């Protein structure tokens, strides 16, 4: 992706990178300036140049701005959906389901897929979602392009935090649960069959470290994704009670991993597992992880998920008779401030 030419798309990428760097350096004035310049360049480029090269650069710039938003504030950022919509709009012109991708195109595809899956989870558990959000969540294009590019499907991908195979299964679980909620041509038997197949994929998924992966926690984080997804299948997909022995085993395994971790920057599995913390000891484990992660990584991202977790625990404390189902409590915790939640 060359910056040698002075195209609008190249300018957009440069300003997006400057915005991200300024945000990391806590230079908020410069970060806002570069974000504004990047977004203006993206919009102008899309209006003037529909070539694949320029649109790919616009996708990269938009994803950089999205990432910048996630570390800018501990609250839910208002503009993250704008940047993701820009990337989603350009995506069909750059990527096709008729071919597979490697190299830089595959890296950007993984990045896009990461936010695609997490945004669909957010839409599923957002009480004020609009029809356009549901249409976005139902769009399978990014999923299908990723499916056709599943080289090294069992290798843990740093962009995703787990293997492509596992992230595909997680995406499938979210889609099936969403369809059931909207009652899209589902019988109970068909629904449970889909969940059973997806859980088997998760249960037997093999996740291998890449040849250059030096993160000592990578394999445990990848397994945490598997356990979190299976917990979600039981708690939200099957509405299993906390006394369910299979669920209890999954929760025990997930907390064993958390107890062995120093930090956990992956807020999606951390949130799902934290919702199962029912003892003071397990809540202390969550707080230890949150505090250590906040000290080492982007504090805003951790503070945001901390607020989601604490709201969920407050919901649990109020529901003494356990009359409110798990999905409803999760939705209430994630919808409290009226903006679509983000996991990054």
From TrEMBL:
It comes from the Eukaryota. GO terms for molecular function: DNA-binding transcription factor activity; transcription cis-regulatory region binding. The keyword Cell cycle does not apply. The keyword Nucleus applies. GO terms for biological process: positive regulation of transcription by RNA polymerase II. It is found in: Nucleus. Keywords: Nucleus. Its main location: nucleus. InterPro entries: Fun_TF (IPR021858). GO terms for cellular component: nucleus. This is Fungal-specific transcription factor domain-domain-containing protein.
